[in-house]
Amino acid sequence: RSSPDVFESRMEKRSDVKKQPVGYSKQGEFIRCMEEKARPIFFAEGLGTKTSKGGFTKDKTLDSILNVEMVKEKSAEEIKQIWNQYFSAKDTVYAVIPAEKFDLIWKRAQECPSFLYALPRKEGYEFFVGQWSGTELHFTSLINIQTQGETAPSQLVLYHYPELQKEKGIVLMTAERDSKFLVVHEAQCLANQVQLFYATDRSETYELVETFNHRSSEFKYMSVIAELEQSGLGRELRPGQVSDKS
């Protein structure tokens, strides 16, 4: 009665509180805010990286992508899920490779650092040369090499990270591509062929890689196409055909 203005002000505040949804409180809002800020940030892509000619990242380390110290407390399966979930939202190629399989790929990459891959096109195939440089695998089309020689730019780079190989038994892989020349499913086809030719148990398949590197005069382009067609890889790249991969 003595202060009508104060009374009305208090009644307005009371009315505002009633309009707020059940369970609402400033404290609850604060807690949610703090929880969001406290969520672990596993990825820090773009930090400490430099873009080289052609748009590819120079010295693309795992630390520049992933908070390695934070994930060391995770199991291999948890890291795999984190990696796959993160990159599934991106327009790129990625994988988590078992340590034993990468050991085989890496051993063979030292012996045979380059190979010829066939990418299915609407009519025929386009050939790409894959060249290992450390744990990076660079691809460029054969026609580029024929016209530009050693200066031919990379059109796809696969980055392999063995930092967690001993402790977790996995090797992480991601990629960068020149979108003017390759779409994601074409890049994926080339990446799948690395497994096909370098991680195979079939001696006849890996023999093609050995022949390309050490007996080039005996190498037959059509043998690569035959292996590719037999494996079913790249079938989805051809119009009117359905991949049998589940």
Structural class: alpha+beta
Strand content: 15-25%
The backbone outline, from C-alpha atoms, is elongated
Radius of gyration, in angstroms, nearest whole number: 26 Å
Task: State the separation between the terminal residues, measured CA to CA.
Answer: 77 Å
Major sheet: size, sense and barrel closure?
A: 6 strands, antiparallel
Assembly annotation: single chain
The count of DSSP E runs of length 2 or more, i.e. the number of strands, is 8
Q: Strand-and-helix sequence, N→C? A: HHEEHHEHEEEHEHEHHH
Explain what the structure shows.
The protein has helices at 4-19, 26-38, 68-71, 76-88, 99-111, 142-148, 165-168, 184-198, 203-214, 221-231; strands spanning 50-51, 57-58, 94-98, 114-120, 125-133, 136-141, 156-161, 170-177. It is of the alpha+beta class. It has one domain. The protein is elongated. Residues 20-25, 30-39, 46-51 and 238-246 have low confidence and may be disordered.
SSE arrangement:
Layout: H1 4-19, H2 26-38, E1 50-51, E2 57-58, H3 68-71, H4 76-88, E3 94-98, H5 99-111, E4 114-120, E5 125-133, E6 136-141, H6 142-148, E7 156-161, H7 165-168, E8 170-177, H8 184-198, H9 203-214, H10 221-231
Antiparallel strand pairs: 1-2, 3-8, 4-5, 5-6, 6-7, 7-8
In short:
The protein is α+β, with helices and mostly antiparallel strands. It has helices spanning 4-19, 26-38, 68-71, 76-88, 99-111, 142-148, 165-168, 184-198, 203-214, 221-231, and strands at residues 50-51, 57-58, 94-98, 114-120, 125-133, 136-141, 156-161, 170-177.
